[in-house]
UniProtKB/TrEMBL annotation:
Keywords carried by this UniProt record: Membrane, Transmembrane, Transmembrane helix
Protein name: Transmembrane protein
Organism: Plasmodiophora brassicae
Transmembrane segments: 180-206, 323-346, 358-380, 410-429
Length: 487
């Protein structure tokens, strides 16, 4: 026991004092935790006493809570300091306000919620829409501390029953979340690109629909037109460009507006469930849109290089295996939407979250590298193929080459953006401790959000509509022909 106490003292001696008011101390004489302090910011700026309030220090004996923080039945700790287990914090399926109000009748002076391998507390602006109307002026202190596994083990072994004093600390995340680089790279630039791309997608979609309308007028005599025939004409003519632009006009604009308003954890402008739901920026829809864009690129490049050996994934993206192609589009949407919904409701299992993130990472990386390989192969071989074709048929196919070159540039940018998203995701999954540090959080989400925004921009640019007049004139030459889809 003496040896354990000595080792514990060495563990905690490395923590040091992190601020003038950074107090979670154990003043009992001779105790192994004596005179050691932890960084202890409040769980939210809208819950309980805050730094700067009068009489914010709380003292009392430590009791351990290892139950449901959302419904702590039978918990009575008048004047005590409740130390929850890390499992209780991780499994709490409710908002911070609900946890606080559920623990308030216990009479505790303070509640300490430990988080493993984190710098507390990135969710400092979390609020359920009430902005602290029910919780801000209550007397019970609610703080978060960051510990590693050894420190957590020592706390749960030695702190129970001992007297402790706790007071709220300055949150180490406050300067980071309000910094110019966080606001610029996590909030301003990605949201601006997303909103701009969403607006452009809406404009392009209108252009495509105008092309369809003018093609309909050019191919159907006026005395044969009707709303039903026009609806049939549109339904038969709608293709990948219309679907992708519809997705981008809605999801990208919505994500951009939410990110611009909320700043992803850096403001209290949005309710926490909204922040949690849009934290992934609707990655499932983004990936589905990328697959559809890759389908258009792959189908187009096949016309230039029809005899090139292609991989199984290329065939799936191209649509050769219909069921697999549909699953590649639909499954990520369903999984990501379900996980984001569960996350916003505080009921997402860490294992499920990790599984969905791993699936999206693998798919993003595989499709991104596949498109990148096909673009590079096109640039290496297409010029020779097109030159040989031009010599054989006496037609340089200038217009087709121009369209394909534009598609190639957009596909290249899209594939590199997908790889950039994967780099950010890889950093998030590589180390929990690195992710929940100010520098790791900023770098990871800067890369991921930049890739997500650029991915959208390149997809939208890929489906810029052609001139409606040119399409109408070509359709007028063959009025009985099946209407061509917009490129």
């Amino acid at each position: 026991m003496v040896a354990s106490a000595i080792v514990t003292s060495v563990w905690f001696a490395s923590i040091g004092r992190l601020g003038a008011d950074a107090l979670l101390v154990f003043p009992s004489a001779g105790h192994p935790l004596k005179a050691l302090t932890f960084q202890a910011p409040t769980m939210s700026t809208f819950i309980g006493p805050q730094l700067g309030d009068a009489s914010i220090s709380r003292s009392g004996p430590v009791v351990l809570l290892d139950g449901d923080m959302c419904n702590p039945t039978g918990v009575s700790a008048p004047g005590a300091i409740i130390l929850t287990t890390a499992a209780a914090v991780a499994n709490a399926a409710c908002s911070l306000e609900v946890q606080y109000l559920a623990l308030l009748p216990s009479g505790a002076a303070a509640v300490i919620a430990p988080s493993l391998d984190t710098v507390p507390n990135v969710w400092m602006y979390a609020q359920d829409g009430t902005h602290g109307a029910r919780t801000r002026h209550q007397p019970m202190l609610f703080v978060n501390i960051g510990v590693d596994a050894d420190q957590y083990d020592a706390l749960t072994r030695f702190a129970i029953g001992q007297n402790a004093t706790v007071a709220p600390d300055v949150n180490a995340w406050q300067d980071t979340l309000s910094s110019w680089y966080y606001q610029l790279f996590v909030r301003i630039l990605p949201s601006a690109v997303l909103i701009g791309s969403g607006v452009a997608a809406a404009i392009y979609l209108v252009g495509h629909m105008r092309i369809l309308a003018q093609a309909y007028e050019g191919s159907v005599p006026s005395n044969c037109r009707s709303s039903g025939r026009y609806a049939t004409f549109v339904r038969q003519s709608v293709g990948v460009p219309h679907v992708v632009l519809t997705i981008e006009a809605t999801t990208s604009t919505l994500c951009g507006v939410v990110l611009a308003i909320g700043g992803f954890c850096s403001t209290a402008n949005l309710q926490q469930p909204v922040v949690l739901y849009f934290g992934a920026l609707m990655t499932g829809w983004s990936f589905a849109s990328s697959v559809l864009a890759a389908h258009r690129w792959t189908a187009s490049v096949t016309d230039v290089m029809p005899f090139q050996d292609v991989s199984w994934l290329t065939r799936v993206v191209r649509g050769d295996y219909r069921l697999a192609s549909i699953l590649l589009v639909v499954l990520p949407i369903l999984c990501e939407t379900a996980s984001s919904t569960a996350y916003s409701m505080y009921v997402l299992s860490p294992l499920v979250e990790a599984g969905v993130s791993l699936m999206l990472f693998i798919l993003q990386l595989a499709v991104g590298l596949n498109v990148l390989t096909s673009v590079l192969r096109y640039y290496l071989l297409a010029n020779d193929v097109q030159r040989q074709t031009a010599v054989a048929i006496g037609n340089p196919q200038t217009a087709f080459k121009t369209v394909l070159a534009r598609l190639g540039r957009c596909a290249l940018g899209m594939s590199l953006s997908m790889v950039l998203v994967c780099c950010g995701t890889l950093l998030m999954g590589a180390s929990h401790k690195f992710l929940f540090s100010p520098s790791g959080w900023t770098l990871s989400f800067s890369l991921s959000y930049a890739g997500r925004a650029l991915d959208t921009a390149f997809r939208v640019a890929m489906f810029r509509p052609r001139s409606a007049r040119r399409v109408v004139s070509s359709n007028s030459a063959a009025p009985n022909a099946t209407p061509a889809r917009s490129k």
